[in-house]
Structures are given as C-alpha cells and as structure tokens.
Amino acid sequence: MAEIKEGQQRVRRLLEERQAILLAHYYQRDEVQEIADLRGDSLALSIEAARTDAPVIVFAGVHFMAESAAIISPERTVLLP
Q1: What kind and span of H or E run contains 58?
Q2: Which pLDDT does position 4 carry in this prediction?
Q3: Checking CA distances to 2, which of 29, 62, 68, 71 falls within 20 to 30 Å?
Q4: Residue 71 to residue 65: CA distance in whole angstroms
Q5: CA dihedral over 30, 32, 34, 40, signed as positive or negative
C-alpha cells in the first residue's frame, strides 16, 4: 500500500511541475480517482477540459474523450495515459 501512495505523490508532483490537470473518468481505479483534479463522466470531463486554463490535460479515460479535449482545446497538450 505504501508503494501506491508514493506513486500517487510522484504523479501529483509531476502534474504540478508541468502545470497539468488530471481528469479521471468514474470507471478509473480508486488510486487514480483519489489524486485526480476532477472526476466525472465523459460529458462532464469534456466540458471541464474546455474550461481549464491548464496548458496540459492528462485524461484518464477512453481515447475518444482525449481526442474530444484536443479538438476543443487545440492550444493545449492532451495526454492519454
């Protein structure tokens, strides 16, 4: 369990260093949802991706969700882990 917490802390540090926001779909693992900036369904997360001013969006969801975010916000980098 300590290893998971260390991993979560590392991810949060990386997000902060890169001025990124982590969006997690409800079906993601608890460990991902616990550290996400926002959690929700596909529509809610796409709306939030369009509203954020973060230069990097990390989308923990399915491929089409990240593609939608990239189309809506072409000036941002969208990553799909």
Answers
A1: strand 56-60
A2: 65
A3: 62
A4: 10
A5: negative
**Distance between CA atoms of residues 10 and 52, nearest Å:** 22
Question: Checking phi first, is residue 79 left (phi over 0); if not, alpha (psi -120 to 50) or beta?
Answer: beta
pTM of the model: 0.88
User: What rounded mean pLDDT belongs to the chain?
Assistant: 90
Whether residue 1 has pLDDT greater than 80: no
Mean pLDDT over 12-38 rounds to 95
Nearest-angstrom CA–CA distance, 17 and 13:
6
* Helices within the chain (DSSP H only): 2-17, 30-35, 42-51, 63-72
